[in-house]
Structures are given as C-alpha cells and as structure tokens.
Design a protein that fits this description.
- The complex is a heterodimer.
- Chain A is mostly beta strands.
- In chain A, 0% of the residues lie in helices and 44% in strands.
- In chain A, strands 2, 4, 5, 6, 9, 10 and 11 form a 7-stranded mixed sheet that branches. In chain A, strands 1-3-8-7 form a 4-stranded antiparallel sheet, with no helix packed on it.
- Chain B is mostly beta strands.
- Chain B contains no helices and 11 strands.
- The chains are: A mainly beta, B mainly beta.
- Chains A and B meet through β5 and β10 of A and β5, β9 and β10 of B.
Chain lengths: 115, 109
Amino acid sequence: TAGITQAPTSQILAAGRSMTLRCTQDMRHNAMYWYRQDLGLGLRLIHYSNTAGTTGKGEVPDGYSVSRANTDDFPLTLASAVPSQTSVYFCASSDWTSGNTGELFFGEGSRLTVL
Amino acid sequence: GQNIDQPTEMTATEGAIVQINCTYQTSGFNGLFWYQQHAGEAPTFLSYNVLDGLEEKGRFSSFLSRSKGYSYLLLKELQMKDSASYLCAGMDSNYQLIWGAGTKLIIKP
C-alpha cells in the first residue's frame, strides 16, 4: 500500500516564483493536512481539509493555498515564494470514522528551499 | 495559550530504560499522542492516551495524567534503532493537534 505520496521530494525555488506541492493518498481517509517542520519548532499546521470540498486555515496559512477537489488529492500552492517558506513540508491524512483515534499518517515530506 | 513542553534532547544507553516527559496546556482535551521521527523521515504514530493511566505496547509505554497535564513515553530495552526524535502532541477541543518541538533521543552503545 502506497499510503501518502508527496511530490517533489526536494525543490529549490527562486523567490517570487509559484510552486505546487502535490499530495495523494490511497487510504480513502476523510481528513487531510499540510504541516511545515522547522528546526527547533513543533509541526505547524498550514491548512487542513476535513472532507472533500472543504478546507480550513491552520496556524500559519499566510502565503499558502489549498484545494480538495476529491478525497485523494490535497495540493498545497505557494503563490509567490519567500525565503521564510524554506522548510520541510509534510502532508498527512487521518480517518475520523467511528472507532478511530484520528492518528495521522504522514507522507515522506517535501524539502523546499527558497532563494 | 496552548503549549506543549518536552525536553530538547536526552541521552541513554543501549539496553537501558528512558522516560521522555511531556507537559501540555490545551483548550479542551481530546487525547495525547506520541510519534517517532527518525532523522530525514516522516513521523510515525506510537501511542494515543485519552484516559488516565498507562498504555503498554511492547517495549514502549505511554502514561497520561489529565489532572496534571502530563504524559510520558517510556522506552525499555533500548536499541540503537530507537535513536530518533519523539514528538508529543495534544489534541484540543477542536480536534486540532498542538505539537511539541520534539525530544531528540541519542542512544549510546
């Protein structure tokens, strides 16, 4: 089982350029999330989606947008990248159906460097 | 505000026992999670506690005290492969996770 697939795994981007990080899951989980992880800080939620067709803002949404057109895909777009968006980005999903704890399943991460 | 505190780094010896502590403050409470993250990899789920007490899973156990806002992860019979960061996360009343910065565990032979 693939679980969650993220692409690209690594990218160097010039400031001001746009970029979309792709995330696809094959577990039919209803909820999906985008986090960024920076040294010395906990995972910070950027955006989330509780179900297909809905999205919400997390702790650090500025400069990022998401869409959830279907259950499986949850792309994250940086419209105009800035150096402070240099980070490792993790996509995750969870199954909130009855009896589940809502544990997160993570993709392998996308390392983004903005110069 | 919401906050998760855990030590930045701990060192332990192969074969020994180590306890990683976590204190939390969340708006409402819907459980406490522990995840393991090896360097350069994604976090993976270890445990979930929502009621007070100890949950045991093989070499790993997790404890929760809701009245004290406190949890710990206990790792027994340490192996070199246990060298990783351990992330504590509290779930608030909106079912959002509040993450600690992680505890880097170094295992020495």
